[in-house]
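Batch manifest, entry 17 of 40.
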Amino acid sequence: MSRYMKPLTSAIHLHTAMMDRLQVVVFIGDELVGAGRIVEITETSVKIGDERYMRGACTFKYAV
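Output type: structure tokens
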């Protein structure tokens, strides 16, 4: 089963994607606002490349 565009719904999903260096995409509502590999995760944000995305405002999905 493909993970393509499956939402990362828990902290473990985010950490697994970061450890496996998987590409993720970031949405706010239906708008694509970012993509790349996760560099850092905090309780409130996810850093992808040089950008930080608020966990409460964004949806993160597997890009592969």
